Every structure is written in C-alpha cells, then in structure tokens.
C-alpha cells in the first residue's frame, strides 16, 4: 500500500498545478502555494506549443559563433542587457560546455524520453472532452525564407530524425497550400504532424487547478519566504507569519526556484530567459497551423483570444523592467511573415522562462533530502513537459519506479 503524505507544492504555474493534481490523485494531502494566482506567470503568456520535436537543446554545436550576429541584429532573437552580462556569463559558459556534440546527443536522448510520454500524461489529467476543448492537434510548421536558411537548420532535423521524430519537408507549393497566409514568400518548410498546442495556456492551468480544488486539494495564496529542513528531514515552509510543516515539498516555482532550491541545500545554475509576446485580438488573417519562423525564431499561435506572436530570449534577470520594444519587433517580423496581418489593439507581455544551460529540467528528489522534490527549469518546453513532470513527481513521492529514467534530470548533475 502506498504511503500517504502531507505535501506542499510551491508554484502555481502549469508544472506546479500538474504536480499538485497528480499527487492529489495519488491520495496525498496536497497544498498548492502560489503568491499571484494560478497560471499568472509564464503559464499565462507562453506560446502554448506542445512540441513533438522538443528534443533539440538550445546549445547546438557551433551555436556560440552565431551569438555576435544575433546580438547585432535589431530584430534578432537574442538580447543581453549589458549590466546583466557579468551575471549571465557563467551560465553562458555552461551552455557552451553543453553544446559539445557528444553532450548534445545525450541531452537529446534524455529529452526524447520525456516526449514519448508527454501527451499520454495530459490524457490522464484531463477528460476527453476537456482535452479536446483545450488542446488542438494541428501540427507545427517551420517556414524558411530561403533554401539556405533551411539548410542551416539541417543539424536540428538530423538530431530529431535520430530520435524518431516524425516530420515532413515541404516545398514552396506544398507550404503555400498548408498555410496560405504566408503569401508564397517562404521557400521551404518543415511540418511536425504530431505537435499540438493549447488554445488557452492560462485556461489550461486554471482548469487543472479547478480539478485539484474539486478533488479536495488546498490552495494557499502566499509567497514563500523561507524553507527550513528540520532535524528529522521534514521541510518547514515560512510564508510571512505562517509556518507549515510538510512530510514532503515540491519546488516548482519556475524562474524563482533557484533561491528555494538553495534553501534546501542544492545549488543549481538556473536563470531566466525573459520572453515577450504580442496578442493580436483581430489579426484578419487565418493561421491554420501554428508555426515558428525558421529565420527569426518567432512563434505564431492561433488561440481563443486571437493570434499570439511570441519569442525573444532576453537576459536581464528577474527585476529589470520589461522592454516592450522587443514585443513590437516581434509584431514587425510577423507582419513581414503574414501579409495583411492586422496588429491593431496589440497587447504586450513579458515573462520569465526558467532555463538551465543544458536545456534539461530538474525533476526528482533533491540530492541531500528525498523529502524535497524538484520540478523546474523547463525552459521553452514547460507546456510540453508539464503533465509528464507531474506524473514523475507523483511516482517519486510514492517511491515507485518512474516511467522515465530521472538520472539525467537530477540536480546532482551540476
């Protein structure tokens, strides 16, 4: 018989909510702790994509030599605020180390193991009706402006092919038939038919949170000030004047997890890739298939509230104010990509992707205390991996054998 515990889950983003619901369905007494409301951070503003090819790390061989050109481009995908450069330098050095060919292959294999079970995990958390209402299966398209830019992406395609990811290469006419809104200006495309997207990222998180509450889970609106590991190994969480002792806790606080993990005795090189989006309420073009520009790394996702244009990696930390010129540049790229796009009424947003330099999340017990479980650092793939992360955390709490080898995702790797 599986033991039942009192478990606190710190973080009410999609990953934290999936963890809380999976744990509650395992019979534990679960408290979800979130200071700003469920799904109010990155889970509100992400691109909503559930990639079927998310086994390619950010750091690929030779990528470091492309960074100067990215930084020089006014509409490039990478921005570093120079005051933050000394802080992010060690992270970038770790990224460089993770970009070695042999290491890239290892990372890709590990990420692919999560992908295999990702959608089945969502199916377990959602009813068929809710799944169909919140998650669309239209695939994912990467259009390329020229054959040259298409060829520059060949290493990523080869890596996905080695992992068994299904995709189709499209010529100009096939691409135009699939996505007429492109206006025939793109030369090549790659289509991933098994990819999905949520039509409402925050709605997905809130729906799962509602299920958690309905199934007698507890939610606290509070900020965690401190975590203390008591002599018996049990964690005690301080929230203002409130202190709560738990049998176990899950740290799933996204970009804020580094500080919390440190309180639990674990140092991790977690930083934030700040991302931006523009939400266009009346785009006046039909985007049949979600897509990511192969030339600009800008995602275009049809959602229930309009068309979301998202992208940019900005290194500036957690406290610097947003620079919404980044979002405006995304709209400019989208207007060139989609002739006739109406950007009137655009609403801009900035959020924090919790990212580790090897592109892999931390999932599983803390190295020094198995009463502390980690579920953070999902980078660009939080929506893709949220549900399977919740299942794996539930398995860890119950000390069951996990469906995925968690060795590569352990915080001990740092």
How would you describe this structure to a colleague?
With 414 residues, this protein is of the alpha+beta class. The protein folds into 3 domains: 1-61 and 99-135 and 196-270 and 356-414, FAD/NAD(P)-binding domain, CATH 3.50.50; 73-83 and 272-355, D-Amino Acid Oxidase, Chain A, domain 2, CATH 3.30.9; 140-193, no CATH class. The protein has helices spanning 14-25, 42-45, 67-72, 85-98, 101-125, 128-134, 147-152, 154-162, 172-178, 201-214, 257-263, 325-337, 382-397; strands spanning 6-10, 29-33, 49-50, 78-80, 135-136, 140-144, 168-170, 188-192, 196-198, 218-220, 226-229, 235-239, 242-245, 248-251, 271-280, 291-292, 299-303, 306-315, 347-355, 362-366, 369-376. The protein has a 6-stranded mixed β-sheet. Strands 4, 15, 16, 17, 18 and 19 form a 6-stranded mixed β-sheet that branches. Strand 11 (226-229) and strand 12 form a beta hairpin. Helix 1 (14-25) packs parallel to helix 10 and helix 5 packs across helix 13. The relative contact order is 0.21. The model has no long low-confidence stretch (mean pLDDT 95).
